[in-house]
From TrEMBL, chain A:
GO biological process: amino acid metabolic process
GO molecular function, one term: metal ion binding
PANTHER family associated with the record: CYSTEINE DESULFURASE (PTHR11601:SF34), CYSTEINE DESULFURYLASE FAMILY MEMBER (PTHR11601)
Descriptive protein name: Cysteine desulfurase
UniProtKB/TrEMBL annotation, chain B:
Protein name as it appears in the record: Nitrogen fixation protein NifU
This protein's UniProt keywords: 2Fe-2S, Iron, Iron-sulfur, Metal-binding, Nitrogen fixation
Function text: May be involved in the formation or repair of [Fe-S] clusters present in iron-sulfur proteins.
Species, as recorded: Thiorhodococcus drewsii AZ1
Domain NIF system FeS cluster assembly NifU N-terminal: 3-125
NCBIfam families documented for this protein: NifU_proper
């Protein structure tokens, strides 16, 4: 869809995907041309590429704080990493028929778990409170020798809320249960030190941290019982067959190196941008609030619910101004319900459909933040003027009673 | 991002008749908060003539919900209530140069708001007569509730049946897993299980295809016409049509008209028609487009 202006767009949708850093592009380009060899080949063409992959593995190892570079397994995406981890655990422990996860996971985990239920597995879905936080007592109760694997996301993609995965991994270890975390949103934004944790497996996705789409990693701690998803060649020590996506692997290595360099910037500069954005919008827009846990979340994510209006309409109007964000409304996903994350936190429908996620990166500027702060209030006001829940100067009295439509 | 027509975008960015009509004497509130679309339609109706003098909308919803509301108010202004009641959701969608399949329910909501408002004006009670399920077939915008009801009403047992009765799954076929799930669920209600190898219901029913071996030509043509008549409303919903051109032994030549002509789904539709005619006649026929008729016949016929 086109925008009205020819101004440079403002990209505040970095939890969806990120721009590939120009330095990353530069690093990967030779691997399409002169460095085209197959790393498995014996000759010089392949050998050099093999070394480049080894270097990339080391760069990723360092960002994750993994003990060994052999713990890094390249995959095609975050979803493949998640599926590999969960299915591997089930395959390796055929007597264990239970899985523990949470109600707010990404579909990469949730849809797989729902599918596994049809095959007879029992899935414990841990609930969250109004701020998207888990109840660790409920988790402790669910842990048993029947559980094959725990899969809990490090950070929520919609709200940025962080889960206590380090503590949960220790609890799993004590119970003798494998622990996997989908850290697709966390890697590159929060410091990670896997060698000093009890996490057995971790998924990451290249395109969330300024590497290209189509490359992911599954970290598999040494000695973790593992069964490959794809069997075939000996690539990745037989843990993931298929010729390596060499250019993207090199790119991911470079992106991880840069992420490590900029880690403190995420926690300071990006956080300051996010905080200013949030404060500016909340101040100017009545009947809006932050969803998730403001005290414990990713530094780049602001998820704001604008009450009595719908998210897709907000996004279309923002898009007209060249501003990119995303929404938890039903319409933006093509489903009949608003975001499962908002529903799980008990956000009422009148607010859940109006949730708008702004996710920043180190490439955003304070000037962009100020422009978005200016843009949002008139858009919200314009849509509220159309809303049956909105009166002259605010919501109608008892909105639920004043407008109670027949289901159609 | 949805592919919205220019017209949808225009009605969303600059909606007509937004807000409640002053001195309205008819109000219709419809929609579902869970789905994220709800609409209040207010009308000012001339009590002498029943003409809609003014219409206004207030919508909680997405871009196409707002555009559909705007279009609805434009369409009905100046119409009498009886004329307005004839407005279909397809007309609302057409007014906007079409809506994506996932968004057709927005136009349905517009039509229902109108029905509710007119019932309100006439002092009647309006009851919503349909519920909507999750979208299963994206090619033809068929939802799970429609599929479930059709399975129950017609005792369907196979994906093929569902395609024939609802069109769902007749396009790209990516939703066949979803259709199998719906079948499994509905069949389970009756204590049956889904069997992928089951024969489709039309073939399994012994009564219909047991046609007399010897049918006169006229009887045969009439039965083929009957099948085409029964299919026609489905095609017309999509602005297409079909007409019988000739029958030559086992070959039945038809003309696909309107939106059906040149539609990439035409071949699929022909197959569906062929199956229905085979079921009806109890003999094998081949349904072909009229273009496939031997040249001489076409030139002189």
């Amino acid at each position: 869809m086109t925008t009205d202006t020819d101004i440079q767009g403002i990209y505040f949708d970095n939890n969806a995907t990120t721009m590939v850093d120009p330095e990353v592009v530069e690093a990967m380009l030779p691997f399409f041309t002169e460095q085209f060899g197959n790393p498995s080949s014996m000759h010089l063409f392949g050998n050099k590429v093999g070394f480049a992959i080894k270097k990339a593995r080391g760069q990723i190892q360092e960002l994750l704080g993994a003990e060994l570079d052999s713990e890094i397994v390249f995959t095609s995406c975050g979803t493949e990493s998640d599926s590999t981890a969960i299915l591997s655990a089930l395959k390796a422990q055929p007597d264990r028929k239970e899985i523990i996860t949470t109600v707010v996971e990404h579909p990469a985990v949730l849809a797989l778990c729902e599918h596994l239920e049809k095959d007879g597995y029992k899935v414990h879905y841990l609930k969250v409170d109004g701020k998207g936080r888990l109840d660790l007592d409920a988790y402790r109760e669910a842990l048993s020798d029947q559980v094959a694997i725990v899969s809990v996301m490090w950070a929520n993609n919609e709200t940025g809320t962080l889960f206590p995965v380090l503590e949960m991994a220790e609890m799993a270890k004590a119970a003798g249960v494998l622990f996997h975390t989908d850290a697709v949103q966390a890697v590159g934004k929060v410091p990670i030190d896997l060698k000093n944790s009890a996490i057995d497996m971790l998924s990451l996705s290249g395109h969330k941290l300024h590497a290209p789409k189509g490359i992911g990693v599954l970290y598999v701690r040494r000695n973790t019982r593992f069964r490959p998803l794809l069997r075939g060649g000996h690539q990745e020590r037989g843990r993931r067959a298929g010729t390596e996506n060499t250019a993207s692997i090199v790119a991911l290595g470079k992106a991880c190196e840069m992420a490590l360099e900029h880690m403190s910037q995420e926690q300071t500069t990006v956080r300051a941008l996010r905080d200013r954005l949030e404060q500016g919008i909340l101040e100017a827009v009545p009947y809006s609030f932050v969803t998730g846990d403001p005290d414990n979340r990713l530094p780049n994510t602001a998820n704001i619910a604008f009450e009595y209006i719908e998210g897709e309409a907000i996004l279309l109007l923002l898009n007209k101004l060249g501003i990119a964000a995303s929404s938890g409304s039903a319409c933006t996903s093509g489903s009949l319900e608003p975001s499962h994350v908002m529903r799980a936190m008990g956000i009422p429908y009148t607010a859940a459909h109006g949730t708008t996620r702004f996710s920043l990166s180190r490439y955003n500027t304070m000037d962009e933040v100020e422009r978005v702060i200016q843009a949002v209030p008139p858009i919200v006001a314009q849509l509220r003027k159309l809303s049956p829940y909105w009166g002259a100067n605010g919501p109608v009295e008892e909105p639920g009673k004043a407008f109670a439509p027949a289901y159609a | 991002m949805w592919e919205y027509s220019e017209k949808v975008q225009e009605h969303f960015f600059s909606p007509r008749n937004a807000g409640a009509v002053e001195d309205a004497n008819a109000t219709g509130d419809v929609g579902s908060l869970a789905c994220g679309d709800a609409l209040r339609l207010t009308l000012k109706v001339n009590p002498e003539t029943d003409v809609i003098l003014d219409a206004g909308f207030q919508t909680f919803g997405c871009g196409s919900a707002i555009a559909s509301s705007s279009a609805l108010t434009e369409i009905i202004k100046g119409k009498t209530l009886d004329e307005a009641l004839k407005v279909t959701n397809q007309e609302i969608a057409d007014y906007l140069d079409g809506l994506p399949p996932e968004k057709m329910h927005c136009s349905v909501m517009g039509r229902e708001a109108l029905q509710a408002a007119i019932a309100n004006y006439r002092g009647e009670e309006w009851k919503d007569d349909h519920e909507e399920g999750a979208l299963v077939c994206k090619c033809f915008a068929v939802d799970s509730t429609l599929i479930e009801n059709t399975i129950r009403d017609n005792g369907l047992t196979t994906v093929e049946d569902v395609v024939n009765f609802t069109k769902a799954g007749g396009g790209c076929s990516a939703c066949h897993e979803g259709i199998e799930e719906v079948l499994t669920k509905v069949l389970a209600e009756e204590g049956k299980s889904f069997n992928p190898a089951a024969r489709s219901v039309a073939v399994a029913m012994p009564a219909a295809p047991a046609a007399p071996a010897k049918m006169t030509n006229i009887q045969r043509i009439r039965r083929i016409e009957t099948v085409l008549e029964s299919i026609r409303p489905t095609l017309q919903r999509d602005h297409g049509d079909v007409e019988l051109v000739d029958i030559d032994g086992k070959n039945v030549y038809v003309n696909m008209k309107g939106a059906c002509s040149g539609c990439q789904m035409a071949a699929v539709t022909l197959e569906g028609i062929q199956e229905r005619i085979i079921d009806e006649l109890g003999e094998f026929v081949r349904v072909l487009p009229a273009q496939a008729m031997p040249k001489a016949e076409r030139a002189y016929g």
